[in-house]
User: Fold Dolichyl-phosphate beta-glucosyltransferase from Monodon monoceros.
Amino acid sequence: MAPLLLQLAVLGAALAAVALILISFVAFITATEMPHLHRHEDEKFFLNARVQREALPSIRDSPTKQLSVVVPSYNEEKRLPVMMDEALGYLEERQKYGSDKVRVITLVKNRGKGGAIRMGVFSSRGKKILMADADGATKFPDIEKLEKGLNDLQPWPDQMAIACGSRAHLEKESIAQRSYFRTLLMYGFHFLVWFLCVKGIRDTQCGFKLLTREAASRTFSSLHIERWAFDVELLYIAQFFKIPIAEIAVNWTEIEGSKLVPFWSWLQMGKDLLLIRLRYLTGAWRLEQTRKVN
Assistant:
């Protein structure tokens, strides 16, 4: 009986090794070597207050504002106005960021959440760049917590630093409100993030993140993933470049209308996590110490 069990164990290990090699090969041959940074001609302009086309700036230009806020939006007619009212009201009270408030970049094709944020980042004017979700789940005044977290990381190497909003402190409460299946999916995703990509960050998926301009340029110019798991690759890239990262607890409320379909979205993100790890591991994707933005 024992020799049979040993043979089965060896066979199982061999099959697993073959499967891993096959998956790695597929991940390698299907990877694009460099991130796709092409911008359609119509995506180089926005309509100003006079309804005239005006050229968008570049992340490589010198900053002209203290803060840029990038909000990806797709079919957000109901949730976006509420979020924008809160954000603009807060920023106007601070009297810090000028009156040139909103610019809308209309993408020719759906690039995914990560692709949309990257286009916004590359068109930003701020010394610091905030990513914020259109649902307004995180209250905008919590930016002050991120700013403090960013400042506490000084001195910033090459002026690069990132502060990530985090909902990890709300985990016990969220478990009590979720089904066992969704809780299992959550823990499985967190394990894959830790095992394959990012160490030391408990909540990689919170959409409330503050980056210095230099950190945004370095990380987003190397980004490949454009769908929901882009946050993980973004932080993987940041850790590769040894960019200091602070994880900051923020207030968060679940807002109805999420585009995530629990099972299939988590399955897609799990696949993306595996591809991130395998493609960097096999050399299909490489991170260079210097990278120019197209």
User: Anything to note?
Assistant: The first strand starts at residue 45 and ends at 47. The beta strands are 45-47, 53-55, 65-70, 126-131, 162-166, 209-212, 245-249.
